[in-house]
Amino acid sequence: MRILIACLDGELLWAIDDMISGLYSIDLRTFKTKCVIDCQKLYPSGRFVIQSLVKWKEDYIVMIPLEVDKNWILYNKVTQKIEYRKVTKRKCQEILTTVDTIRKQIYFFPRYIMDPILIVDLDTLTCSKVIENWVGNGPENCGETAWKGAYDGRYVFFPIKNTKILVRMDCETQKVRLLELDILETVVDVDFASGELWILPISGNQLYQADENGRIIRTVELTVKNMNDLIPNFSRIVVQKRYLFLLPCYR
Fold this sequence. Notes:
This protein has one helix at 39-42; strands at 3-9, 12-17, 23-27, 33-37, 50-56, 60-65, 72-76, 82-85, 94-100, 105-110, 117-121, 126-131, 150-151, 155-159, 165-170, 176-180, 187-193, 196-201, 206-210, 216-221, 234-239, 244-248.
């Protein structure tokens, strides 16, 4: 198996196999693996990219496509039946930022800046808000956003790739602001945990911590031993309570 996406459900790990496809359950006590939906049943009308797995209403595992206008796949763990749900008719590619259990909403930011920001009602799995033209008079010649976004309990953040722009959406008012970071490099990724928002530049040897208004409050310089002090390019940052994990580019 090659697992790219998964979600935790008590002592079960639900995962999509990226090699032969299908939905699998993995018992974390015994590591016994079971295919609950094979490839043909999962994609009866042709294969597409599943970007996220979400546990929903205790009995369901929801498979969310990258092209959110396609049918969302709902697997009922009790009846072992598959249901399909049309959430939006708007054709676009969206990236799930977070499931907000307090406001009962799922936030999606667009993969491309011409697409809208989507908000999905968590109770009904219906699209409750479409934010069009959020970029306004933003940067030109920059078509993509970044790999993922961040959520701090009040705001959703995501960068516009190869710019210094950090997009911020207020989850209460749903107002969007474009914050220009005061850094030398352009941004490739952000992450938030334990009250800290961290910025990963696309190159260079520095990481930045920012506040909710995009103001830089801490700078960290990177050094790598036994590599002639060469800093590899990193593509993603993962923030934990005590550590920052940096994932290098494939090459």
